[in-house]
Amino acid sequence: MSRLNTSQFPEGFLWGGATAANQLEGAYNEGGKGLNLADVLPGGKVRMNIIKETGFNFEIDKELYTYPNHDGIDHYHRYKEDIALFAEMGFKTYRMSIAWSRIFPNGDETEPNEEGLAFYDRVFDELHKYGIEPVVTISHYEMPLSLIKKYGGWRSREVIPMFVKYAETLFKRYKGKVNYWMTFNEINSAVFHPIMSLGFSPDNEESKLQETFQGLHHQFVASSLATKACHEIIPSSQIGCMILYAPVYSGDCNPNNILNALKEEQVFNYICGDVHVRGEYPAFTKRFFKENDIKLDIREGDLDIIKEHTVDYIALSYYMSRTEVKDEGDGDYTAGNFFTGMRNPFLKASDWGWEIDPVGLRISLNQLYDRYQVPLFVVENGLGAYDTIEEDGSINDDYRIDYLREHIRAIGEAIEDGVEVMGYTAWGCIDLVSASTGEMSKRYGFIYVDKHDDGSGTLERKKKKSFYWYQNVIATNGNQLEK
């Protein structure tokens, strides 16, 4: 099979980068902002333990832990400098999120916090100054802490109107400044770890699936109502759902393992997509819910709301594939983005054990487009790695260039396959705090930030070799991918 000439990226393709408010803004107690989920998650390897375990108390304990999200990379005060660097790279778009607790500090106030709204006005104005189109995630792993403590997060239906009010506030305020929206970040990640997406730590493993899918149902209703509001308030806008996508491979050609991979893929990759795009729960959930004793409290009108207000596009994060067998036993396992799987002997892995599979991105885009026939937007993809500053001050991150080049090439191949792809925003276009581990040393950016795991550093921004490479990729609309 011939290799695609990547000049076939369509005119107007949205090249850019992606970040999240809780991972780079800092200023966690400034501007009237309230505490949120990310503010109570400690840094370091302990974070992953908390994400996986049950019964987290959502308290800050500075005697035991550090909290890197409190400072982030000080983007709150340095956004102009950072956006100027994005513009220098030639960004057409910038995927970012708004911190819910900057707008409604406790989540349930009658009136929004004007200081928070004004901050994002300034950010959007700065982006538009350079001709950069913002793509905004409404909720990205940072639910207001008060809603977690008072209502149990998305366990409670009472949170639905609070989220819808928050979303409507954004649509009304930023009409004319933001044309692309997404409701919840990586909504399906809750299937593995509900704490990040749903804002609660399950009471126990036995109740985890029941609590998780009830919480997801509440989010589905809220997302549909927000979609309705977006279409009404900003008719020219587009609003999408956002999922964490990972194709599931069978560990061998045993039909039982192939069936297991299919079932894993259905539950993780497709339930959330089907509800958002098709407007209904897929048929396979009937058996899945029955076998796992999941009984959803679906109120009158919920399914009508979901059916009537579907999204315009699917946004996805893609970092790796998964390889699974039905009976795992004592096999060789690898790490991943909130999940683990069997080690794939055909793939290499990152410094953090995440397997590198660019072909898997082409597979993912084909699978999604075959199923949904709506535009796709790759809004997260990147390599977390240790970076070294050379004696001359340069940062030669060829490994990052190699990773991104092959994944961008895979998107080009998918476009040639007939898939409609709107754009590509590389994750962590500037170094920021890792969501999964709370580390700064796990660097993704084209821009190095002098901040370290122990909290030290000058916060100086420095361009990596990948900065100039990506600048050329954008300038040539993907026609030149080599270093």
What does this structure look like?
This protein has 483 residues and is α/β, with parallel strands linked by helices. It has one domain: TIM Barrel (Alpha-Beta Barrel). The protein is 39% helix and 14% strand. It is built from 16 helices and 16 strands. It has an eight-stranded parallel β-barrel, surrounded by five helices. Strands 6-8 form a two-stranded parallel ribbon. Strand 9 and strand 10 form a beta hairpin. This is 6-phospho-beta-glucosidase. Keywords: Glycosidase, Hydrolase. Belongs to the glycosyl hydrolase 1 family.
What key phrases describe this protein's structure?
483 residues, alpha/beta, TIM Barrel, two-stranded parallel sheet, 16 helices
SSE layout and pairings?
Blueprint: E1 14-18, H1 21-24, H2 37-40, H3 46-52, H4 75-89, E2 93-97, H5 100-103, H6 114-129, E3 133-139, H7 145-151, H8 159-174, E4 180-184, H9 194-198, H10 208-233, E5 238-244, E6 248-250, H11 255-278, H12 284-291, H13 302-308, E7 313-317, E8 322-324, E9 333-334, E10 341-342, E11 348-349, E12 355-356, H14 358-372, E13 376-380, H15 398-417, E14 421-427, E15 447-449, E16 461-463, H16 465-475
Parallel strand pairs: 1-2, 1-14, 2-3, 3-4, 4-5, 5-7, 6-8, 7-13, 13-14
Antiparallel strand pairs: 9-10, 11-12, 15-16
Helix pairs in contact: 4-6, 8-10, 10-13, 14-15
